[in-house]
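TASK: fixed-backbone design
INPUT:
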């Protein structure tokens, strides 16, 4: 048999914001597909109409546009296997439900929610399966005529899969190896509900994956318990030969490593768990997003790629092309991956360092302008070159280096107390006169003259420079003093020095 073209899918439900764990699943699917010259399909699984949230689908698509994860076909992308939205595939599913019933692989069940609750109350750990199905109200216990009468009368029903006991079900998982489950522990899962004329996830995803020629299903480990059922469904349809390979990814765990990562963890430790800011249309609640918090999409992708996958080398910084080249499902962990948000911040810092001054300046320039400062872009870029190694996020630049653009209006009390001595006003007055007479106000031009003056006067260099910094900056932090004064220029440097002398004398 000819080797099939790799086809994978990411199939979220439009029930709210996209969790960062879902982003990682999509990323792994994307990397796998691209590495093997295959395609990734974007499918919307909206069979649960009660949980639909307006705007969720658009939010998910925008998240992937921001992250640079590009789909080849699917909802909003087109393709030859549509429709790609499950709610638009009702008639397709009905045909396959009928096929299962006709072949004795599934059956109608008319048990009401109240009757099921009563059964659960009556029988501890009740499960609708081979041991109990003949006690229930279904097409296995009712006559053909009675079944038809109920359906014709509009009575609501579900279709359940008929799981035969005594079988060993093997799931050949790329990450976890051979997973064997005895069919006796499986219940007769609901595949279809007449109430909304929609299938459940279990049937829909099997039918869709088959018809869309999906070769590999890469998903979270929360679906591993359902995998044996899915294998049985492939058998029931006679599709076992074309069944996709499974890979169940480890969970993303809380920063402490205990339990699944949740939004509450993000709220507690101060980091987002969604790619973009999410405005819940039902509750009005606003949830933080990595984009709005100032993370670079490349940093997020890089960080997520290493949560559950280890390349086997010391390399930590990967471009998307490098990830595509090196990604290997066989090197994915079986155990959960702790969401180390501090490492996420580290990645963002590394990307700030690796990006050009111009790139960072393009992000910083609007912040500068937003603070009422109108300066040429080259000035912003120059500040970035001096300061970007000191921040983890572009938004942190302004409070750190606003002094480059705005003269201090006040002076930090602690710094004044510590750095402005009783003789500082006299020394700064002398420094003013020295600087006033310098024609070459470059870093080098200033430094040689000032350092000679300090030496000749016998002053302590620290005293002079600390007072000089306080005068120009307003605090005791910043890059080299001559870098600052050279950037400000002679006129602005002297103006700030004069003002500080007058106020702090």
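OUTPUT:
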């Amino acid at each position: 048999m000819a080797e099939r073209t790799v086809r994978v899918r990411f199939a979220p439900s439009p029930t709210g914001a996209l969790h960062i764990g879902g982003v990682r699943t999509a990323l792994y699917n994307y990397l796998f597909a691209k590495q093997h010259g295959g395609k990734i399909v974007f499918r919307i699984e909206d069979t649960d109409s009660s949980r639909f949230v307006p705007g969720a689908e658009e939010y998910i698509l925008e998240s992937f546009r921001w992250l640079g994860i590009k789909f080849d076909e699917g909802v909003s992308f087109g393709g030859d296997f549509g429709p790609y939205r499950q709610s638009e595939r009702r008639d397709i599913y009905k045909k396959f439900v009928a096929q299962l019933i006709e072949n004795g692989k599934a059956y109608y069940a008319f048990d009401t929610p109240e009757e099921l609750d009563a059964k659960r109350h009556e029988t501890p750990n009740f499960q609708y399966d081979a041991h109990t199905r003949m006690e229930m109200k279904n097409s296995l216990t009712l006559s053909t005529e009675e079944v038809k009468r109920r359906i014709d009368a509009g009575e609501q029903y579900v279709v359940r899969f008929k799981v035969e006991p005594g079988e060993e079900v093997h799931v050949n998982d790329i990450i976890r190896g051979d997973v064997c489950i005895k069919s006796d522990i499986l219940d007769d899962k609901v595949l279809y509900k007449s109430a909304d004329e929609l299938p459940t996830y279990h049937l829909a995803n099997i039918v869709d994956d088959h018809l869309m020629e999906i070769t590999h299903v890469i998903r979270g480990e929360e679906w591993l318990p359902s995998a044996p059922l899915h294998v049985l469904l492939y058998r029931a349809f006679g599709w076992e030969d074309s069944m996709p390979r499974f890979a169940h990814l480890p969970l993303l765990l809380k920063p402490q490593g205990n339990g699944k990562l949740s939004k509450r963890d993000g709220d507690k430790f101060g980091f987002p768990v969604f790619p973009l800011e999410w405005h819940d249309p039902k509750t009005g609640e606003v949830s933080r997003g990595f984009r709005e918090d100032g993370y670079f999409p490349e940093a997020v992708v890089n960080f997520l790629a290493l949560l559950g996958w280890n390349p086997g080398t010391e390399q930590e910084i990967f471009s998307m092309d490098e990830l595509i080249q090196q990604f290997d499902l066989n090197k994915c962990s079986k155990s959960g991956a702790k969401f180390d948000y501090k490492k996420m911040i580290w990645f963002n810092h590394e990307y700030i360092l690796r990006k050009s001054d111009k790139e960072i300046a393009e992000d910083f320039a609007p912040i500068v302008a937003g603070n009422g400062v109108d300066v040429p872009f080259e000035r912003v870029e120059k500040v970035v070159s001096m300061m970007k190694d000191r921040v983890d996020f572009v938004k942190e630049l302004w409070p750190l280096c606003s002094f480059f653009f705005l003269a201090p209006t006040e002076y930090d009390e602690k710094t004044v107390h510590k750095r402005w001595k009783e003789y500082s006003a006299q020394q700064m007055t002398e420094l003013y006169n020295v600087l006033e007479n310098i024609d070459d106000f470059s870093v080098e031009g200033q430094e040689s003259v000032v350092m000679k003056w300090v030496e000749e006067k016998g002053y302590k260099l620290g005293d002079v420079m600390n007072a000089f910094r306080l005068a120009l900056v307003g605090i005791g932090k910043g890059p080299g003093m001559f870098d600052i004064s050279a950037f400000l220029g002679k006129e602005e440097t002297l103006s700030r020095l004069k003002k500080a002398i007058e106020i702090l004398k």
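COMMENT: The longest strand covers residues 168-173.
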